[in-house]
Amino acid sequence: MTEEHKSLQQIIEFRIEKLQKLREAGINPYPYHYEPTHKSESIKGDYPNLEGKIVRVAGRIMALRKMGKASFAQIMDSEGKIQFFIRKDDVGEETYNHFKLLDIGDYVGVEGYVFTTKTGEISVHTDVFTILAKSIRPLPIVKEKDGKTFDAFADKEQRYRNRHLDLVVNPEVRKTFVNRAKIIKSIRNYLDGRGFLEVETPVLQPLYGGANARPFTTHYHALGQTFYLRIADELYLKRLIIGGMDRVYEISKDFRNEGMDRNHNPEFTMLEFYWAYSDYEDNMDLVEKMFRQAAESVSVQKTNWGGMEIDLSQPFQKRPFFELLKDATTHDLGNASEDEIRSICAEHEIEVENNANYGQMLDELMSKLVEPKLIQPTFIIDYPKATSPLAKAHRNGDPQLVERFELFIGGAEFANAFTELNDPIDQRQRLEAQAALKERGDEEAQPVDENFIQAVECGMPPTGGVGIGIDRLTMLLTGNRWIKDVILFPAMRSEDP
User: Fold this and answer.
1) Runs of H (alpha helix) within 78-170
2) How do residues 408-427 score in pLDDT, each as one tens digit?
3) Distance separating alpha carbons of residues 283 and 418, to the nearest angstrom
4) CA–CA distance, 176 with 412 (Å, rounded to integer)
5) Which phi and psi angles does 83 have, rounded to 5°?
6) Taking phi first (over 0 means left), then psi (-120 to 50 degrees means alpha), and beta for anything else, what does residue 151 get?
7) SS3 of 368, please?
8) CATH of 3-139 given 2.40.50.140, 1.10.8.50, 3.30.70.141, 2.40.30.170
């Protein structure tokens, strides 16, 4: 009976027996330290200089071919895979018998000289091997032949629940998260190079705000108060602007108690930055350049995202909110009443709640009729005031508009930005209007944050602010269409016991 046909419990028991034999032979199967000299890919890349030289490599065994007096195995480290060859005549019968107690999944250290096998594979000829960790639970079975993978660990749900296994048996997944780190580093470098200061603001907040979302609620026992996991960093970062810190940013975890789909996870990573004496025009230019630099950090200019060819090297388009809606509906909605907009929703078979307000219905029209068609990078600019309680009234004098943009790529939102509202009287009125919507049943409307308003009353300079979803940007630049593929440990429903 081969190992793959045994029950899991049988496999574990068999491996524990091997573990015990190693211990009885005086071998510690879980030593404290090992010091490799090389990685797999560096050996292959520098083979002409390393041929015949002694190296030490360490990694997890991913393939084993045990034979009578000589065997081959393949180990995987953080760079890739490399084969090692071990022969009884070189290491001695006792050590070779210890080698035979190894399994796929075990960690080993291998010391020996670099050579090429008769089949042309760069390998390590083993003089000394060290067991670094004995695996008692088997890995998912993955077979490779002629460069093709069979029986891959492909079940998405199991991969998300067992990311450690996913990273082991699907090495391309590791590249996604390496690139995610490069993207975040590129963003930090870009902002740091322009005089921005990275800061940290509270995760637990006595009052949530800065976005329209339903919060997660918790209880702070020491204070005897209800607290909320932050839905955005905005109101705290603006207080820093008020305090004289002219350029600040934070890359943080935010939390919104909402549904999960291909673009949304309740715990997600946001970049928010605020720039005193700038406006939304300045920030459109900054965001476009930042996106290009992030793309360059992972060698991307054009990307295929869910079958859509997206070119990040071309200038981003700019289109006004109501102009796009007019193209989609043939109606000028700039001065339409709530009843007229409800009628247009019905005309386009867009269902809205009976208590949906003006702003919510406009948002539904945009999300259903316009946003999915914005494939190439496009800034939607000049939003209605009803949907933007923290944005400044438009300088063109139109009382319905604010200076706001959202960036859409591939039909998805990537950035949201304002010329920030710094008139405290207007700000109070807007937040009170939001509170009224909350009373009408809008669970995502913002509450009145008296402490924030009092801070703005102390005087806030002209400021531009931007929020960017790091997860979604990573999806775009790594070609992943599901947010769970770019979050190491995404939220999952509990499995049935």
Assistant:
1) 88-91, 93-99, 156-161, 163-169
2) 999 999 999 999 999 999 98
3) 9
4) 20
5) -90, 145
6) left
7) helix
8) 2.40.50.140
How far apart CA 254 and CA 212 sit, in angstroms, is 13
Ranges of each domain in the chain: 3-139, 173-316+376-485
Q: Which residues does residue 155 pair with via DSSP β-bridges, in sequence order? A: none
The CATH code of the domain at 173-316+376-485 is 3.30.930.10
Read off the tokens for 237.
């970062």
Question: Tokens 């929703």 identify what position?
Answer: 345
| Residue indicated by tokens 């067992």 | 162
Report how far residue 68's alpha carbon sits from residue 83's, in angstroms, rounded to the nearest whole number.
18
Question: What is the per-residue pLDDT across 305-357, written as a single tens digit (0 to 9) for each?
Answer: 999 999 999 999 999 999 999 999 999 998 899 999 999 999 999 999 888 88
Whole-Å CA distances, 187 to 81, 191, 282? 31, 6, 17
DSSP 101-117: T--TT-EEEEEEEEEE-
Structure tokens at 374: 């914005």
- Sequence-distant (≥ 6) Cβ neighbours of residue 145 within 8 angstroms: none
Q: What is the pTM of this model?
A: 0.90
